[in-house]
Design brief:
The complex is a heterodimer of chains A (about 100) and B (about 475).
Chain A (H helix, E strand, L loop, with lengths): L4 H11 L5 H18 L34 H5 L5 E2 L2 E2 L8
Antiparallel strand pairs in A: 1-2
Chain B lengths: L7 H9 L5 H19 L2 E4 L1 H17 L9 E5 L26 H7 L4 E6 L33 H9 L4 E6 L5 H7 L2 E4 L19 E6 L2 H11 L29 E5 L9 H16 L3 E5 L7 H16 L18 H12 L2 H14 L5 H21 L5 E5 L15 H5 L6 H6 L3 E9 L2 E8 L5 H14 L11
Parallel strand pairs in B: 2-3, 2-4, 7-8, 7-9
Antiparallel strand pairs in B: 1-3, 4-6, 5-6, 5-10, 9-11, 10-11
Helix pairs in contact in B: 2-3, 5-6, 7-15, 9-11, 9-12
The chains are: A mainly alpha (about 100), B alpha/beta (about 475).
């Protein structure tokens, strides 16, 4: 069943991405035809099968918590699109 | 033969015996770039100044006797790996002006061995694609036929190696992004075992699948570059601990008695008869070299594509959520609130394929669909992995075609994502299982290269490299170069 316009808009809202009307329409058809390809998986019985998150099973690797010098603030801010003094600058996050 | 057409090991011999200098070799490659880059467009950024400096330093190393097998060798790095002080774009508007603060571990390890960086390789945006047409800047053209794609996502890297615009390149492979372009451009491409090479400094696409590897003119070069980049890295929590062997020592050219499986599912519908014939001829060559060849079956192969296109977009939607227009990268300046900045930044910073995958991943991970899509895909991933493990109890390696067809025309599949995705159908299972695989040129059809894959079990790089090496000892497909300029 094709995705509805509302479903596409809901996903865009979850991800915080704006889509044009044209993109929404395109997502509806293209995502639907891609999702259709995924249906084949439902034929497989996976009851009791453990999921694989990583192909190579490694135990969580820990390192010692030793303080090391970090990058200078100036360097970290050098790629910032908008900054003020020693801070990243953003628009209002909490509205009235 | 021109200097830009030689292999890394040939360069090493010429440099060591002082028949050429690193500066001469670098100038030869720079000249080649000047003459063919306008047609091929394999680079996003050229670093001539860095290259000339590194070449001069390399000549010093030869004089002072501390050269390595890569000293003075011109290379390209796919623009998904961080290079300190050198723009790293992922071929995206989002990172068009991004200057990394540090080198990726692989770059650091290479720099320590003295090669010459010619520039950063063009790619599908954030490594998402199979044709390099998803680059936000320009497509790359296949050096064997300029109206065709070089494959992707490491298309700039494969095209640069084929065209003599570098002697070797580093690419990354999430679902075939090293091997598929290697096959379509007639070069050798290796995807190592997941965890063999550090991913630190590789801009993440799908973290459980991404792996860095070399694109080279032959297998010997693959082993030389792998020696340089493989190693444990405490900065990558998925890096496999322990020492790595000297991969060049594995190239004995002796595969007598080796058991090779031919999984029949890789020779099914949709395989171009010319590709089928070339790969079967390649298998015959390996049999003549003493290998024992037997057909086998991997019945779950056809499910791998769906598993991949659920897992990779899911991981990508999570990884790319870091692009919020605040800390680095593109930012939409005309928004009124922080949320709007984020929404507009992503709307304008990401291209169509990246948006498509983000949306697919968000769908697969969202409430109500998680179990049916994402969790289901992870469970089928277990079954695919087990299927490979079982077959590798009987075989030392598997031989398959790399791609169902030769290079397709630019523009042919851009409006049909499903058909584009299907061009990865033979490369994807390897990433799902995390195993190593190398693609080598095994013939031509109508002037376009064909690739053959050698897959091995986890950490069997020495075995698959030796099989591929033995194949190249008996054939000369890897010595063919396109006519350009």
């Amino acid at each position: 069943m094709p995705l509805t316009r509302e479903e596409v808009l809901r996903l865009a809202d979850i991800y915080h991405i704006q889509l044009s009307e044209e993109e929404v329409a395109q997502m509806q058809t293209q995502m639907s035809s891609i999702l259709e390809q995924f249906q084949s998986l439902s034929q497989l019985d996976t009851d009791g099968v453990e999921p694989t998150g990583h192909a190579v099973s490694l135990d969580t690797i820990m390192r010692r918590d030793v303080p090391v010098p970090s990058y200078p603030q100036e360097s970290i801010l050098s790629n910032a699109p908008d900054k003020q003094g020693e801070f990243f600058q953003v628009h209002t996050v909490l509205e009235d | 033969m021109e200097h830009y057409d030689i292999t890394v090991h040939e360069a090493q011999a010429l440099l060591e015996s002082r028949q050429i200098s690193a500066t001469e070799l670098t100038e030869s490659v720079l000249g080649r770039i000047n003459s063919v880059e306008p047609q091929v467009q394999a680079y996003v950024t050229l670093t001539e100044d860095v290259a000339r400096e590194a070449a001069a330093a390399a000549d010093q190393s030869f004089s002072s006797g501390n050269a390595t097998p890569l000293t003075g060798v011109p290379m390209q790095i796919k623009d998904v790996m961080s290079t300190k002080g050198i723009r790293t774009t992922c071929s995206s508007r989002m990172l068009e002006n991004f200057i990394p603060l540090y080198d990726a571990t692989v770059v650091e390890r290479l720099y320590a061995r003295g090669p010459v960086l010619m520039g950063k390789g063009n790619m599908d945006e954030f490594a998402m694609g199979s044709s390099t047409e998803n680059s936000a800047f320009h497509p790359t053209h296949n050096p064997w036929s300029l109206d065709r794609v070089p494959g992707g996502s490491s298309g700039g890297s494969a095209a640069a190696v084929a065209a003599g615009e570098c002697l070797f390149a580093l690419g990354s492979d999430t679902g075939g992004s090293i091997r598929q372009p290697a096959a379509l451009c007639g070069v050798t491409g290796l995807k190592p075992t997941y965890g063999l090479v550090s991913r630190f400094g590789l801009v993440a696409f799908a973290s459980s699948l991404d792996q860095i590897g070399p694109l080279t003119k032959d297998v010997e070069d693959s082993a030389i570059v792998l020696n340089a980049i493989a190693g444990h890295d405490p900065r990558d929590s998925t890096s496999i601990p322990g020492e790595r062997p000297d991969y060049t020592k594995a190239l004995t050219g002796d595969i007598k008695g080796m058991r090779l499986g031919i999984p029949k599912e890789y020779f099914g519908d949709g395989l171009d008869p010319a590709v089928d014939a070339a790969v079967r001829q390649g298998i015959k060559t390996l049999e003549d070299a003493g290998a024992i060849v037997e057909e086998c079956s991997l019945p779950l192969t056809s499910y791998a594509l769906a598993v991949y296109y659920i897992i990779a977009p899911s991981e990508c939607s999570t990884n790319l959520s870091r692009f919020d227009g605040v800390k680095y990268g593109f930012s939409a300046g005309d928004a009124a609130t922080a949320w709007e900045t984020q929404e507009k930044t992503r709307a304008r910073g990401f291209g169509p394929e990246v948006k498509r995958r983000i949306m697919l991943g968000t769908y697969a991970l969202s409430a109500g669909y998680y179990d049916a899509y994402y969790l289901k895909a992870l469970k089928v991933r277990t079954l695919i992995r087990q299927e490979f493990e079982e077959v590798f109890q009987r075989f030392d390696a598997l031989i398959t075609p790399t791609t169902p067809t030769t290079a397709f025309r630019i523009g042919e599949k851009t409006n049909d994502p499903v058909s584009m995705y299907k061009s990865d159908v033979l490369t994807i299972p390897v990433n799902i299982a995390g195993i190593p695989c190398i693609s080598v040129p095994c013939g031509f059809s109508e002037g376009l290269p064909i690739g053959m894959q050698v897959m091995g079990k986890a950490l069997s790089e020495e075995t698959i490299l030796n099989i591929a090496y033995t194949y190249q000892q008996a054939t000369d497909w890897h010595t063919k170069r396109p006519t350009l300029g």
